[in-house]
Amino acid sequence: MSLAPRAVLVHRRTEYEELLARHGTHGQAAFFLSSRGRSIDEVARRHEDTRQALREVAAAVPLTWRSTRVERADLDRFLFAPEDVVVVVGQDGLVANTAKYLSGQPVVGVDTAPGRNPGVLVRHRHADTAALLRSATASGGKAEELTMVEAVADDTQRLLALNEIYLGPPGHQTARYRLGEDGESTPGEAQASSGVLVGTGTGATGWLRSLWLERRSTLPLPAPCDARLLWFVREAWPSPATGTSRVAGELARGQGLRLTVESDRIVVFGDGMESDALELTWGQSIRLGIAERSLRLVI
């Protein structure tokens, strides 16, 4: 007998809740904000709007389903099941933060602040939740398969991201490494830079696009469902020992970019989640390419 679907509502603490956690009371938080020329009223209103949206989304879950909630901070400790339908209630970035922990479960993005969020990934309103849940579990339900990027280290450490993966120094130092195509016979070009960014079509609305514009790149930006990645080296430094001939490119499915560490420490993290990073040291190598897994976003 198969299990009933489970709705997993993903959310994050609001700015108001973070203020209370830091200052203890509403009054103390209000005083803190007023001393900086801000009013707590707007923050409290956005908090209530978010909580109301979360309540309405929870109420839209069919009575025959199971349901649970998970905060962003607990995602790395939460076990998603194959029968889950994931409802992200919040910002676009929260969908990206959730994507790396999934393995094909449908995702519904609910925007709690229309007009404040771009709505690239949280495309729906909370009033549409019931219909979206039915669509997510129906055969032939409409969904987009968004390309993800993957990093796999030589010690089997693995990282997935929906927008981009960054490799670089943990602080403001210079990263030293060798960069080349995966599988080539040469060790790659020795480089010194502030890091390497590998991004998807979903990430092409953010950090990847910023680098693309800065470089005035002629490479076409990928669309979210395209099986294509772009990569850029940030601030490569030419010297007698380091080169700058490989600073940008694209990767199709099956192609990889390989980086071999030649400094004490390099961190690798995805979608801005620095707290969930891989760490590499001298001599280790890592391959970046299109992940076999994609994000199934209900439309």
TrEMBL record:
The highest taxon in the source lineage is Bacteria
Check the record and name the Gene3D superfamilies matching this protein: Probable inorganic polyphosphate/atp-NAD kinase, domain 1 (3.40.50.10330), Probable inorganic polyphosphate/atp-NAD kinase, domain 2 (2.60.200.30)
InterPro entries assigned:
ATP-NAD_kinase_N, ATP-NAD_kinase_PpnK-typ_C, NAD/diacylglycerol_kinase_sf
Segments spanning the bilayer are none
Specify the protein name. Answer: Inorganic polyphosphate kinase
